[in-house]
Design goal:
Two copies of one chain form a homodimer. Chain A is an alpha/beta fold. Helices cover 32% and strands 20% of the residues of chain A.
């Protein structure tokens, strides 16, 4: 795969505009009664017309046979090889609640838990306390004073929270405090690499103070911390390709992932139509626009084939509004497959539709997994899609003379 | 390509069962009179039905344009990038005669040769002595005493034998004693890396003792040694994927290769039907079962198109017995191509058929090189097939969150 450094050296300014439409978990599998996948069952006249003019392909998000999580799935789409660039669990959790991380942040996932008089864990989830209680306790913990460190402690849901340790010199490489079973005490944080010793000290200090502050609480009288991770050291899209990049996404996780690579989030309502309205409104501000549609994945995970089909049809209905903006390149794809028959993310390759005036049309009859097998893009890795987009957008100059 | 360490971290337990059927050298080329390849000429109703339900692809065993030997061809199928993991010739020769190596073994290929009174080689193959003579002389050599070293010396065929030096601390990195021409003396073994000096000492001592023991023999009065190599440091399939893996193969070489990656060999007779009987008998003992069919390759090398076709048809006839065992994933493929028109291993990509309930069917009309071009697996490296198998077997968890 071509390196980001090489891509950066090839990038050139252009006035072209790109829209990347990601239907989360778009790839499907045939349903029993007529053998159609979700994309095939959906009535998608606009996507089909685009497919007929464009070039199709299939993409493996990580590698053949590997099922991606949302983080690596999107990193791949943004052009970062997920096997090379890894995002820690703490960072992902922080991003998922719309926290804006800085490069001085060390993030961790937290659980409120219950411990007995001996300090042994009796419930790793503190009886799944209500989110409002979690929020109040986070407020308490945020008052902990650690010299030189800013603390951000925010509720996620029920017993789950995120803590950001913000300070210079906090490096990742820490063991977790979760013993993974009850009747054990929370473990001390250990630095697994020497340069993480300051971070270990800070984390242990936080846990000790939390213990004191929570002593009188019930059932959430202690914390366990996992997934310590730093803000990932990723070159931003602007640095690599020189594009101003924007994102519209209903769910915070995807705005957060996009921010990690330098995209700016724009506001939108909750529906697919709202997202296309936001796209219309902000189209002039960006060279590269990423629109994330969540519900294809959610319905896929629910095993709700029909509703996944309806979301695809909804996107199709809005597509003319996008095309009316006269983008130079449009890509429609997904971060992974979530076949409704499988009810989970899967390893199947993802259909890709690339449209620009520079396409060799495949003459496809529609946009589907089947048609994509024969597409001119071939079978690629998701991380190769961004160079393709930039190539079709005439934003990459010749490699060598 | 995803690393074995990453795969290991993704592996999860499952009850699914996998059968990998390898028809050695299966890939073919069109014959002159009707343009059909061996797979196309064969009547294979069962394989064709499986292809219609499954997902097809083409695999390059090593890299495009590269013709594989049997060792790397199989390593690739077992999921080890043959460009990264290499098996020495000595080990391969030992494996080929069913020797069970340990991680303390240094293996070498030997030739009995003829030398004159000055010690100059007059015949590098000692007139191709009969195998029985070779066996007797190996018995002699096995009596050589080297302190701290166990010696195993076994005949291969005619003048060829294998020697295993079994001891702690014998590292590979040795020069060969074969001068590759007559009228030269056998060369001393040199350590090409410093930590191989003990091994060089041992090998030279063996050669010196062999010279004495063989002095009165004719024509085989000396030995030359080549291909010194250690038992390869490969993580076993069990370590990576947590599967119990079994192999049925008529030829020892393939049982041996499978043992190198942790498979357990089961006994079978000599025919394809015998192999399927062994598969039936031992199916319950393993999660992963590798069945090796040799004669597709042998007839390919002979240029015997018709007989290669018959072997394919024989496998097809037995296929229902395999399917009756209700495996979760079946893959049918080869370790390389051996087109009968080419009479040798070739560099052509190998047809792959993957079948499971999680397939997006390609709707192929049959199993052939032509149909595989349009398959949903695309064009992959053979080493990527194992992650695909494990993905379809639901034995890999999500990569990242």
């Amino acid at each position: 795969m071509i390196s980001l450094d090489d891509l950066k050296s090839l990038a050139r300014p252009a006035k072209t505009k790109v829209v990347l439409v990601v239907m989360d978990g778009i790839g499907g599998l045939p349903r029993a009664f007529d053998g159609k996948t979700e994309l095939e069952a959906a009535q998608t006249p606009h996507l089909d017309a685009l497919a007929a003019q464009g070039t199709l392909g299939l993409a493996d998000p990580i590698a053949p046979g590997i099922t991606p999580g949302s983080g690596p799935g999107h990193l791949g789409l943004f052009g970062y090889d997920p096997l090379q660039f890894r995002i820690g669990r703490g960072v992902l959790e922080a991003v998922g609640i719309d926290l804006q991380l800085t490069d001085q942040d060390l993030a961790a996932r937290g659980n409120f838990c219950s411990v007995d008089a001996q300090g042994l864990i009796t419930d790793r989830r503190a009886g799944r306390i209500p989110t409002e209680v979690c929020a109040r306790l986070c407020g308490l913990l945020e008052k902990i004073q650690i010299p030189g460190v800013d603390l951000i402690v925010r509720p996620v849901r029920e017993h789950r929270f995120v803590v950001l340790f913000r300070a210079v010199g906090l490096e990742e490489g820490l063991s977790e405090t979760d013993p993974q079973e009850i009747d054990k005490p929370p473990l001390p944080v250990r630095a697994e690499v020497t340069h993480a010793s300051r971070a270990a000290e800070v984390a242990n200090r936080f846990v000790a103070e939390a213990k004191k502050l929570l002593a009188a609480e019930h059932p959430a009288n202690m914390v366990i911390l996992r997934g310590f991770s730093q803000y990932p050291k990723l070159p931003k899209l602007t640095e690599i390709y020189g594009v101003r990049a924007g994102v519209v996404a209903v769910y915070p996780m995807y705005r957060g992932l996009a921010r990690l690579v330098g995209m700016e989030a724009v506001k939108a309502g909750d529906t697919v139509a709202d997202e296309f309205t936001a796209l219309e409104k902000h189209f002039g501000e960006f060279d590269f626009f990423f629109a994330h549609i969540k519900k294809t994945d959610s319905y896929g995970e629910d095993g709700n084939f029909e509703s996944k089909v309806h979301v695809i049809e909804e996107v199709d209905r809005e597509l003319p509004r996008l095309l009316a903006l006269k983008p130079d390149v449009v890509m429609v794809t997904g971060d992974h497959s979530t076949p409704a028959t499988h009810k989970a993310h899967s390893w199947h390759p993802v259909p890709v539709l690339l449209w620009s005036k520079w396409c060799r049309p495949d003459g496809a009859k529609g946009f589907s997994e089947r048609e994509c097998r024969f597409g001119g893009l071939g079978h690629v890795r998701s991380a190769e899609l961004m160079p393709l987009i930039m190539g079709y957008a005439e934003r990459l100059t010749k490699f060598g003379a």
